[in-house]
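#onboarding

Welcome to the new folks! Below is a worked example of what a typical request in this channel looks like: someone posts a single protein sequence, and someone else replies with the predicted structure as tokens. Don't worry about understanding the tokens yet, we'll cover that in week two.

Example request:
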Amino acid sequence: MRRKFRMLFNFILFRRPAMFTLIALTKNVRHLILAAVTVCTLSFAFVPAASACGPEFECAETYTVQAGDTLYGISLKYHVDLWTIEYMNYVPNPRLLQVGQKLCIPNITPKSAPRLSIVGVEAGRTVTVQVENLAPNQKVDVRLGKNGTLGVNGEIVGTATTDANGKFSATYAIPQALQADSIIAIRVESQTGRYAYDWFWNQP
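Example response:
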């Protein structure tokens, strides 16, 4: 009996610090696990929805992805930069769009910005444009260029003078070097540095 008591006394006396250390470590591990679970939960809670539009712009339209759609094709359709659509909709992989997925098409053109609209195209021959929100009574250059250039350093196909409201409309001949291109970039530039650009299908 005395021997058992001594063994118990020695265990409590010499092993107690180790026991307390083990208990303390166990508590710390529990706290770490709890913290990790909390962080993961909050991360999932604040992941933005795939179809949510970013805070910088408003949705001009919501597009539903159809079979065969690509982000590039959608950007061409709405004249919005591909990367803008990708960023605004938090698209993790632009090659993996899902049929039925909702995409916010942002309105990124302020009303005061120069605006270039394609009114009509006679394939391989002419393009008719309408421009607004430029400075009044000012000369502007109209350029046509290869697709993807935004018309920068394109061939000057004509000049125009805006009216008192900063608008003009005109028809321009498509240069021979671009007549066989299916997509052509167009750009208007004013003397004050304001500009607008667009593109059009050069097909029958």
